């Protein structure tokens, strides 16, 4: 709860289940910030109907998907105004905690999923990914950003409104030595790769730097880039 409050205080909160959504929204209500509920990112790509209804009723519209079933569940919610973010699987074989076996669509599925979203009248605004906690190879961020670029370009080719958001996940080490022990990439090494990849991404799109939300709480660092 304290971490969620910290996220809300900073202007954004990434949440995964309905209980976290409720807890993230509570301090906003107390502070009179209910109009900022749109800054909550509902990051679970497979949500129950009641959770989607709660989100829609409380202006929590920024939400993640990684499959066609989730798109159809979202489209079926009365009065929804969801802003959908496609979660991509990543190359996380070198990570301590791997998530892509459970979450994320293969980049080759992106065109189909974007087409389904478009046909359902859903608004897609961006891409998210997570290279896994304790990422053992900084190149995973470069590959993931290259895949994100493919999705942005595919959306443009499909005649969809321009995508505007990339969520680069979490799992960043909170100390100098790197999560997972000696030999693992440090925060500084990961940050350098992320910065280079973001610059290449924006250059390819002829875009100005975007807000790239991240999660990363550790001993010495929090992450994010404007």
Automatic annotation (TrEMBL):
<keyword id="KW-0456">Lyase</keyword>
<dbReference type="GO" id="GO:0005737">
    <property type="term" value="C:cytoplasm"/>
</dbReference>
<protein>
    <recommendedName>
        <fullName>Orn/DAP/Arg decarboxylase 2 N-terminal domain-containing protein</fullName>
    </recommendedName>
</protein>
<dbReference type="InterPro" id="IPR002433">
    <property type="entry name" value="Orn_de-COase"/>
</dbReference>
<comment type="similarity">
    <text>Belongs to the Orn/Lys/Arg decarboxylase class-II family.</text>
</comment>
<dbReference type="InterPro" id="IPR022657">
    <property type="entry name" value="De-COase2_CS"/>
</dbReference>
<dbReference type="GO" id="GO:0004586">
    <property type="term" value="F:ornithine decarboxylase activity"/>
</dbReference>
<dbReference type="GO" id="GO:0033387">
    <property type="term" value="P:putrescine biosynthetic process from arginine, via ornithine"/>
</dbReference>
<dbReference type="InterPro" id="IPR022644">
    <property type="entry name" value="De-COase2_N"/>
</dbReference>
<feature type="domain" description="Orn/DAP/Arg decarboxylase 2 N-terminal">
    <location>
        <begin position="32"/>
        <end position="205"/>
    </location>
</feature>
<dbReference type="Pfam" id="PF02784">
    <property type="entry name" value="Orn_Arg_deC_N"/>
</dbReference>
<keyword id="KW-0663">Pyridoxal phosphate</keyword>
<dbReference type="InterPro" id="IPR029066">
    <property type="entry name" value="PLP-binding_barrel"/>
</dbReference>
